[in-house]
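Worked example 3 (structure in, sequence out).
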């Protein structure tokens, strides 16, 4: 029978101890995860120039208003069958209310002509009708939001419906607390459409002289829509903190 020497036994014992103490991979620190769906620190409420109050929400590195803007004086939208706007370039902020009913503005926020929202400038990221310290999100701001929610770099610049569940995550009663609502929109001819079916948001980025980028979410489709539309359309507006 083979006899092990004491020194050999000691070496083998040390090896057994070392192998048993091998470290497991360390879990990813919680601090590396993006903050999503909580109130912006120190900013529980934001007020616009009409004293309307808006809650806030963090999504990644951005602080967003949690509801659509409802600032301005209601003006009726007149159906004409042709492209037109019913708001004026003056010192008064004007908004449309779905179906020309102010109850819709109270529930869903106003619908805004692009130029009115921008206060008749075309500078991306301008304050526009947002509260002080906030701005109309650019197309790039929306891309940051979408990337935080998992939209891939290969899809970020594409048009049409993109991603998988990024749109669904922005709806009310979902993890982001962005609380998007199916507020419908105003066509360029003055008619309203897509109540309880479509959420639409302007960006402050022009695509060309007559259209600007927007984002849309359709009922039953979890993706998020990126396209450009005529400036006379009436879409909802969100603001993002500077």
């Amino acid at each position: 029978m083979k006899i092990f020497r004491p020194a050999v036994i000691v070496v083998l014992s040390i090896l057994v101890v070392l192998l048993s103490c091998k470290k497991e991979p360390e879990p990813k620190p919680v601090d590396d995860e993006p903050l999503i769906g909580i109130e912006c620190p120190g900013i529980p409420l934001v007020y616009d120039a009409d004293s309307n109050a808006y809650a806030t929400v963090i999504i990644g590195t951005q602080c967003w208003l949690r509801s659509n803007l409802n600032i301005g004086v209601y003006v009726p939208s007149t159906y004409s069958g042709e492209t037109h706007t019913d708001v004026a370039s003056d010192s008064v902020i004007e908004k449309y209310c779905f179906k020309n009913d102010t109850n819709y503005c109270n529930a869903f926020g106003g619908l805004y002509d692009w130029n009115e929202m921008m206060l008749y400038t075309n500078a991306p990221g301008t304050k526009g009708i947002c509260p002080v310290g906030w701005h109309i999100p650019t197309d790039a701001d929306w891309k940051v939001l979408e990337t935080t929610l998992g939209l891939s770099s290969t899809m970020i610049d594409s048009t049409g419906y993109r991603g998988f569940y990024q749109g669904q995550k922005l709806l009310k009663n979902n993890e982001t607390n962005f609380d998007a609502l199916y507020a419908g929109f105003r066509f360029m001819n003055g008619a309203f459409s897509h109540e309880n079916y479509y959420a639409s948001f302007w960006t402050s980025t022009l695509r060309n002289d007559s259209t600007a980028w927007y984002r849309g979410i359709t009922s039953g489709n979890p993706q998020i829509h990126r396209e450009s539309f005529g400036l006379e359309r009436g879409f909802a507006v969100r603001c993002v903190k500077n």
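Notes: The chain has one domain: 44-241. Residues 44-241 form one domain.
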